[in-house]
Write a structure and sequence with these properties.
By secondary structure, the chain is an all-alpha fold. It has one helix and no strands.
Length: 49
Amino acid sequence: MPETLESLLWCAALATWLMLFFGIAGEQLKPLSKLLGHLLQVAFKPRAK
């Protein structure tokens, strides 16, 4: 039983660190995503004469 509890705690700790990592990484990548979206919009904008 203690081995099962230890494994469960390790999994919970790993899940917590992964959520924190992906949350921080996602917040840092938002400006880059916004910039790429703007560049794509400008690049493929129809040119009216």
